[in-house]
Design a protein that fits this description.
Blueprint (H helix, E strand, L loop, with lengths): L1 E5 L8 E5 L9 E11 L1 H8 L12 E2 L4 E8 L11 E4 L12 E5 L3 E3 L6 H6 L1 H14 L7 E4 L5 H12 L3 E6 L4 H6 L4 E4 L12 E6 L3 H5 L5 E9 L6 H6 L3 E4 L6 H12 L7 E6 L3 H9 L6 E5 L2
Parallel strand pairs: 9-10, 9-12, 10-11, 12-13, 13-14, 15-16
Antiparallel strand pairs: 1-2, 1-4, 3-5, 3-7, 3-16, 5-6, 6-8
Helix pairs in contact: 3-4
The structure holds NADP nicotinamide-adenine-dinucleotide phosphate (NAP).
NADP nicotinamide-adenine-dinucleotide phosphate binds next to helix 1, helix 3, helix 4 and strand 10.
InterPro entries: ADH-like_N (IPR013154), ER (IPR020843), GroES-like_sf (IPR011032), NAD(P)-bd_dom_sf (IPR036291), Quin_OxRdtase/zeta-crystal_CS (IPR002364), YIM1/Zinc_Alcohol_DH_Fams (IPR050700)
Protein name: NADP-dependent oxidoreductase
Keywords: Oxidoreductase
C-alpha cells in the first residue's frame, strides 16, 4: 500500500511516499481502508521532532491521526464493528497513522460515522471534535447560559468548539482576524471578536469558560477575562495553577485521548444538524508537504483533508 512516512525528523522534505506492506491487526483491532485523512498541527510538530520526549517513535512512522473509511478486516475479539462498516476515528497517536491506504486501529477507538457525513467530513471531525468536547463538556462541564470564549474560532478545534458550545446552550464569544469575522457568525458565535482591533479586555465582557487554543501571551491575557471561579482550559500550554488561584479561577490542560463515546456524541450533534466540519483545504498523499505548510501557516480555516482513496 502507499503510505506517507518520515524516516527522520525535520522539514517537509522528510515526508516520503513509500510503498509498504498493509498493516497486520491485533485481536482487538480493525483494519480500515482509508478514504480520507485529516491534517492537524500535531502532525507537523511530530514531524519536526518537537514531541520526541513525549512520544518516542521508532522511525519510520506513518503520520496522520484522523481517519474515515471502510472496515475490511476485524480482529478475533471484535464483536461490535463488522467488515463493510463506514467508520471514523482518532486513533492512538503512538501507532502508525492515517496517511496511508490502510490503517490498523483498536476497535474501541472507532465509531460508525453518521450517514449525514461524507468520508471527508468524517475525517475532519475526530481529533479536533474530541478535543473540543473533552475541554468544554468533560472538563469545563459547560452549562446552558454560561459564557464561553473560544480563541481561534476559525481554526480546526475552534470552529467545532463554537458549534458544540452553542449546542450545549452556551453564549459563545469567539476570536479571529478581520477576514474570518463572518465565518464566526455563520458558525453560530453570539459575538465575533477581531483580536487585531483592540485588546480583548476592551471588547469582551467576563466569561465562565475560556478555551485556550493559542497559549503564551493569549493565555496570560485571558485570566482577566474570566468571572470568579471561571475555568481556563488549554490544549497548548499547561496553565500555571498559582496564576489561576491568584485570579480566583480554575485551570486545566487537556491532551486528547481516543474516545468512541465522544465520536458518538459528535455523531448525535451531526444528526441534529448542530455540528458540521468545514473543509477549506484539500490535498492528496502526493501533496502532503503542501498540506503541512498550510497547517504551519497558522491561517487554516476549518480543516485540511487528505483524499486517499
Ligand atoms: N492538547 C491537545 O490534545 C490538542 C488537540 C488539538 C489541537 N491542539 C493544539 O491546539 C492548537 C490549535 O489547533 P487547531 O487545529 O485549531 O489549529 P489551526 O486549525 O491551525 O488554527 C488556525 C487558526 O488559528 C487562528 N489564529 C491564529 N492566530 C490567532 C490569534 N492570535 N487569535 C485568534 N485566532 C488566531 C487563525 O485564524 P485567523 O487567520 O483569523 O487569525 C486560524 O483560523 C494547535 O497548537 C494544536 O497543536 C492540541
Amino acid at each position: 500500500m502507499r503510505a506517507v512516512r518520515i524516516h527522520q525528523y525535520g522539514g517537509v522534505d522528510t515526508l516520503k511516499l513509500d510503498t509498504i506492506d498493509k498493516p497486520s491487526i491485533n485481536d482487538d483491532d480493525v483494519l480500515i481502508q482509508v478514504n480520507a485523512a485529516a491534517i492537524n498541527p500535531v502532525d507537523w510538530k511530530i514531524r519536526e521532532g518537537y514531541l520526541q520526549a513525549f512520544i518516542p517513535y521508532e522511525l519510520p512512522v506513518t503520520l496522520g491521526w484522523d481517519v474515515a473509511g471502510i472496515v475490511t478486516e476485524v480482529g478475533a475479539d471484535v464483536t461490535d464493528i463488522k467488515v463493510g462498516d463506514e467508520v471514523f476515528s482518532r486513533p492512538a497517536i503512538h501507532r502508525d497513522g492515517s496517511y496511508a491506504e490502510f490503517i490498523a486501529v483498536k476497535a474501541e477507538e472507532v465509531a460508525i460515522k453518521s450517514p449525514k457525513l461524507d468520508f471527508s467530513e468524517a475525517a475532519a471531525l475526530p481529533l479536533a471534535g474530541i478535543t473540543a468536547w473533552q475541554c468544554l463538556v468533560d472538563v469545563a462541564d459547560v452549562q446552558p447560559g454560561q459564557r464561553v470564549l473560544v480563541h481561534a474560532g476559525a481554526g480546526g478545534v475552534g470552529h467545532l468548539a463554537i458549534q458544540i458550545a452553542k449546542a450545549k446552550g452556551a453564549v459563545v464569544v469567539a476570536t479571529a482576524s478581520a477576514s474570518n469575522q463572518a465565518l464566526l457568525k455563520e458558525l453560530g458565535a453570539d459575538q465575533a471578536v477581531d483580536y487585531s482591533k483592540a485588546p480583548l479586555a476592551e471588547q469582551i465582557d467576563a466569561v465562565d469558560i475560556v478555551l485556550d487554543t493559542m497559549g503564551g501571551e493569549i493565555q496570560q491575557n485571558s485570566w482577566a477575562l474570566l468571572k470568579d471561579n471561571g475555568i481556563l482550559v488549554s490544549v497548548v500550554d499547561q496553565p500555571d495553577e498559582s496564576v489561576a488561584k491568584a485570579n480566583n479561577a480554575r485551570s486545566a490542560f487537556v491532551f486528547i485521548e481516543p474516545s468512541r463515546r465522544i465520536l458518538e456524541e459528535l455523531n448525535t450533534l451531526v444528526d441534529e444538524d448542530k455540528l458540521r466540519p468545514i473543509i477549506e483545504h484539500r490535498f492528496t498523499l502526493e501533496t502532503i508537504a503542501e498540506a503541512h505548510l498550510q497547517s504551519q501557516s497558522g491561517r487554516t480555516r476549518g480543516k485540511i483533508v487528505v483524499d486517499v482513496n
